[in-house]
Please model this.
Amino acid sequence: MKNLKYFARRYVDWVIRLGRVRFSLLGLVILAVLALSAQILLSFFITNQIDWRDVVRSIIFGLFTAPFVIYFFTLLVEQLERSRLDLSKTVSRLQNEILERIQAEQKLSIALNNLEKSNRDKGTLLATISHELRTPLNGIIGLSRILLDDQLSAQQRNYLKTINISAVSLGYIFSDIIDLDKFDTQRLELNFQPTDLNSLLNDIQNFAILMSEPKNLQFSLEITSELPDSLYLDRARLSQILWNLISNAAKFTEKGKITLQVSAPENDVYQFSVIDTGSGIAPCELDNIFKMYYQVKENANRSSGSGIGLAISKNLARLMGGDLHVKSRLGSGSTFDLTIRAKKSEPIRDNSLLQSSLHLSVLLVEDIKLNVIVAKSALEKLGHHVDVAMNGQEAIYLFERNTYDIVLLDIKLPDMSGFDIAEHFRQKYEDGIYDFLPPLVAFTANVMQTEQEYLAKGLDAVLRKPLALGELRHCLYRFFAEEMEPSSVQTAFTDKSQHQTLNTELIGLLGKTQMAQNLALFKQMMPNYLSELHQTFNAYRQNHYLAEQVADLAHKIKGAAASVGLLTVQGWAEKMQHNEAEDWRWSIELWLNKLDETWQDNVKELEDYLNI
Model:
């Protein structure tokens, strides 16, 4: 077959090289010779004689017909060859285009990967900033509010008001920045919860008064229609919008007053109008003030704003099913009308006064012993029975031999992930092997950006480590509200004193006796953890592929420290576990040294707090 293709290729090349005319003449000669030879031989063998008249007739007929046949055959071969060459060029061009497209797609893929990495890095940075900023901010706000209730001189009160309002303002500005990132990546979600409307408005009024007093402005809250006691709202987001509007009103009003009017113009629709007597906004600016980074021109205060507050507020209002509009005239002040949609909710009950009357059966899946002690103690203090599984196989074994009301799943286990266990349970339930599937709750320190990501992987809710009493009660109330009853006695677990280095809420939850036992176990385990961490880190210096192992050991130390409330140790371990961070490679040795230097001091602080 290959030889046939080769000779056919050579034949076509030969035809093209000779040309139509020369090949036709040559073909005529060859055919004439072959035809005459064949006829003479056949005549001789059949009749034993040659009929020259037939030979002459054949020659005459061939002279008239053969040239045309040969010429058109040659023309056909030539056209086919040209078509083949054109097709070959087309295929070659298409191959080049495909290659260029593949290269372009590869470049695009690399660019998208770099963009995705940049977004991850930005998210990691913002998460770190959020943790580092909000903890001291909440302390400043809480302490300043407590001190404002004490007997103070006029000067002290003014100073504290300035501290309080500055901290609150910084918190809301930071919320704007975080929301800006979430809007860019379309990850912002609202957290609708039953909200005490009177309490929310009271907080807004107190804040607005603090904002107005330094400029001798009057603030008034006017409720122009009957409002329900509680609504399903995202309280933090609504407060954020109203803070933006009121702070802008105070910023751009030199004298007069600021008014917040609240009404319910129709069912499930609520309007909040912030009215000021400031300088107003020019008509040409009204269409621009809700644009991102836009600042009003010809404005003495334009340098004091970020240009994102109103844009974020409008987007939040739309997420709430409403909108944000402005009416203004130069010299006559401005009115910002915020509308939202919200459903009425049942009157809010204090979950801290609720305890279970049925005593739930809980399966706790956790591989770190200290975390087990903390979570089990908290659950048992609330009257629940707890079984513990240290890995996935043990969890499945216990689940198939007992009946549980709720399952708490650590995500990172030695043999499988919490997601794998949840998928196993759900598949068995859907196949009819399990008759009942209780709520599956993620119990983790590595919480994803949104709870929806956990829900998409088969979990029903998320609890954070270290276990907080309020979050635990809220989680149980969410799934077992109908089975819970109010208690006449409220146990105060939370120590009101503020410690930057100790988790006093956790200490109050477990009690000092239990915490002392946990601390003794931690002191026994920590040297081994540190020794293993140093060995792995030294190996990492020679082989950077071991970064993940260093991070995993830091994660264990973080979990252990969190379980005994050692916030300093937890903080350094938290930094060390994020090996995906850009500065991790250059800072890991510094963080490890800090961990070595501070962990015993942090333990000593806890011992002093526990009086041991």
